[in-house]
Design goal:
Elements lengths: L4 H8 L6 H16 L5 H28 L21 H20 L2 H4 L2 H15 L13 H22 L4 H24 L1 H6 L5 H5 L1 H24 L13 H13 L3 H28 L2
Helix pairs in contact: 2-3, 2-7, 2-8, 2-13, 3-4, 3-6, 3-7, 4-6, 7-8, 8-11, 8-13, 11-12, 12-13
Length: about 300
């Protein structure tokens, strides 16, 4: 049975990846509140911009992976709209540009708080979203996708959200951004872990393809360890013990590590992909709550 247009486009947004856009805004805003300067309107614009960039990047990935032959009928992951023949390539390309244009216009609203230099940051985020799988040097095809996610959905998103509300960038904002970026990159690790064989055939040289699945498992563990260690860093930096709330996720995170080591079927890895996004959401929520009570 053919899905409805709403189902097709909702699937194309890749809802399992959306926590990567929400989490940094939540953490950055909580950190701003901890510093005594929360601006709800600015936080809302940051959230809108982050979500639109994430969706635009996903649309670009849907389009460019089809054009480059990475997404075919042989793919083992979730259905892709263009590859499945549900959306014409030209339509997806137009939707991609439309969403990125909406992101740019949304980001312009932040200039009132962060200054005109934010236009450059916004444009860089959008251009890298396109360059993730498009352009003459697609980042994901050269093993740089993880770096892109860490920087833009970690350091830039958390740091930018904090900056537009507080008016300055801090070491704590960058540390929190690093923690969020590590867990956001793990979403990509699981996705690329599942698609390693088809990516290799399409010459999409992700880190998993370049270094192999054992290295991907080590990266996954290192990212989780780094993120869960960050609340301890904040405690040492003088924050109250409430900031340790994310450590409640240690047992859940360990099950994710075990699952990546054991599971090989596409269905199991798709489930882990969704759960990795949920772990990021839980982490951001608990970190934000910890910062709230640690004030």
């Amino acid at each position: 049975m053919r899905p409805t247009p709403a189902e097709i486009w909702w699937g194309a947004t890749r809802p399992r990846t959306l926590p990567a856009a929400i989490a940094p805004v939540l953490v950055g805003s909580a950190l701003a509140w901890h510093g005594g300067r929360l601006i709800p309107a600015a936080a809302a614009l940051c959230l809108g911009f982050a979500l639109l960039v994430q969706i635009g990047t996903n649309f670009a990935n849907d389009y460019y992976d089809f054009v480059r032959g990475a997404d075919t009928t042989d793919r083992v992951g979730p259905r892709r709209a263009v590859a499945a023949g549900l959306v014409a390539p030209a339509t997806m390309r137009a939707a991609m540009y439309g969403v990125f244009a909406a992101a740019f216009l949304t980001g312009l609203g932040l200039v009132a708080w962060g200054g005109p230099w934010l236009v450059a940051v916004g444009l860089a985020s959008i251009l890298c979203g396109i360059a993730y799988t498009g352009g003459p040097f697609p980042l994901a095809y050269h093993g740089l996708g993880d770096v892109f996610v860490f920087i833009f959905f970690g350091l830039v998103a958390v740091g930018g959200t904090y900056f537009v509300q507080v008016g300055a960038l801090s070491t704590d904002a960058l540390l929190a951004g690093a923690a969020v970026g590590l867990l956001a990159a793990n979403i990509l690790v699981v996705n690329n872990y599942r698609d390693a064989e088809t990516d290799a055939v399409a010459h999409k040289r992700t880190l998993v393809v370049r270094l192999g699945r054992p290295a991907a498992r080590l990266q996954f563990i290192a990212s989780i360890t780094g993120a869960l260690a960050m609340p301890l860093v904040f405690l040492v930096r003088g924050y109250r013990p409430a900031v340790l709330l994310p450590l409640l996720l240690v047992p859940l995170a360990w099950t994710h590590v075990r699952r990546l080591q054991k599971e090989e079927s596409p269905k199991a890895l798709i489930a882990l992909l969704g759960d990795t996004g949920k772990l990021l959401a839980w982490y951001a929520g608990l970190f934000g709550l910890g910062l709230f009570f640690a004030r």
